[in-house]
Write a structure and sequence with these properties.
Belongs to the class-I pyridoxal-phosphate-dependent aminotransferase family. The protein is α/β, with parallel strands linked by helices. It contains 13 helices and 13 strands.
Length: 391
């Protein structure tokens, strides 16, 4: 096996020394070999993609749709995304100039941030939040300004935002809702108040709304509704349509910005997988009923797990969206969530992600994904109850 020389290894980009393996997947890998473990770690829908989506992918392959597509994504898919955003969230984006298809929402985030940021730029990141935001910023040499929202029910308040913007000359804010990891989301009134603060500053708003179709109660309202000139809207097909493996994301933004984002996208991936785009076109156009079925099932699981975990002595953040619970450890176990998560994995055979993986405010919490079968969730509760009864 070839081995790189130490001299060459020392010549790689020094920024790599600041990057760590993705915290969620690193912990998942650490406990995956434990026999009979139930893993509620990864944000992966347990549903299969709807049949009509799979049929569209197969038809694309059979029809020899095997050549390079358009860099921005097929016009059919961009039109479907534009129609979806109008139908669901009353947003207006021209498919020809204000929408670009990406390889998953992660590429949408990275390509957008690479377009707007330079080394040293400050970016506001409410925490606890998805850890990959900080990883992307580190890779760009940007400076995260973490705002701990734990004391406010895991919601960024207008006062917090105003103070942070006054103290830091930030170029952007990454705003994720419904939230990974907490499941917390925002009402239209709360978004309007935050938007009023953001409008007073010349700041990019990167709105990660990948979980927008999974809200329980009031429908999702997009931040782009209030800040269309400042917002870079990021989403995709992965969560809503159980299409994580198809790798379809998108960015919607003003045309001049999409033109610049397309440059980095072109240099990074050139174009997309045609069969995935064909499948996603059907998803965005035709699969609202399938989303409704999945949403209803997730709501049942959420209600079950909140009730059961509360009865066991865990505190649970109010989860109005996504498919996660952010649960506070019982006080007798202290606040070392990594140590507690490892104990649960090895002794209870239940895998949850330590809350500190999600930044300031996550300490002493665990993230649980209820995108799992009812049988698995019931067994999880049984195992947690047995563990707590003997410890």
């Amino acid at each position: 096996m070839p081995a790189i020389s130490a001299t060459l290894l020392n010549r790689i980009n020094p920024i790599m020394d600041t990057l760590k393996p993705a915290a969620i997947r690193a912990f998942d890998a650490q406990i995956s070999d434990i026999p009979d473990i139930i893993k509620l770690t990864i944000g992966e829908p347990d549903f299969d993609a709807p049949a009509k989506i799979k049929a569209a992918a197969v038809a694309s392959i059979k029809n020899n749709d095997s050549h390079y597509g358009k860099t921005q994504g097929s016009l059919a898919l961009r039109t479907a995304i534009s129609d979806f955003l109008h139908r669901k969230y009353d947003l207006e984006y021209a498919p020809t100039s204000e929408v670009i298809v990406t390889v998953g929402a992660m590429e949408a985030l990275e390509t957008s941030l690479r377009t707007i940021l330079k080394p040293g730029d400050k970016v506001i990141v409410p925490t606890p939040g998805y850890p990959m935001y900080l990883s992307i910023l580190a890779s760009l040499g940007a400076v995260p300004v973490c705002v701990n929202t734990a004391a406010n029910g895991f919601k960024l308040s207008p006062a917090q935002l105003s103070t942070t913007l006054t103290e830091h000359q930030a170029k952007a804010i990454i705003f994720n809702f419904p939230s990974n990891p907490t499941g917390v989301t925002y009402t239209a009134e709360e978004l309007a108040e935050l938007a009023t603060v953001m409008q007073q500053h010349d700041i990019f708003v990167v709105a990660d709304e990948i979980y927008s179709e999974f809200t329980y109660g009031k429908p999702h309202v997009s931040l782009a509704k209030y800040l269309p000139k400042q917002t870079i809207l990021v989403s995709g097909a992965s969560k809503a349509y159980a299409m994580t493996g198809y790798r379809i994301g998108f960015v919607a933004a003003p045309a001049a910005l999409i033109k610049e984002i397309t440059k980095f996208h072109q240099y990074t991936v050139t174009t997309h997988i045609n069969s995935s785009m064909a499948a996603a076109t059907v998803a965005f156009n035709e699969c609202d009923p399938e989303i409704a079925v999945m949403r209803a099932e997730y709501a049942k699981r959420r209600d079950y797990m909140v009730a059961q975990l509360t009865a066991l002595g865990f505190g649970v953040a109010s989860p109005d969206g996504a498919f996660y619970l952010f649960i506070k450890m019982p006080t007798r176990f202290g606040t070392d969530d990594t140590a507690f998560a490892l104990r649960l994995a090895h002794e209870a055979k239940v895998a949850l992600i330590p809350g500190n993986s999600f930044g300031p405010g996550g300490e002493g919490y665990l993230r649980l994904s209820y995108a799992a079968s009812q049988a698995q969730l019931a067994t999880t509760i049984e195992r947690l109850a047995a563990f707590l009864a003997t410890n």
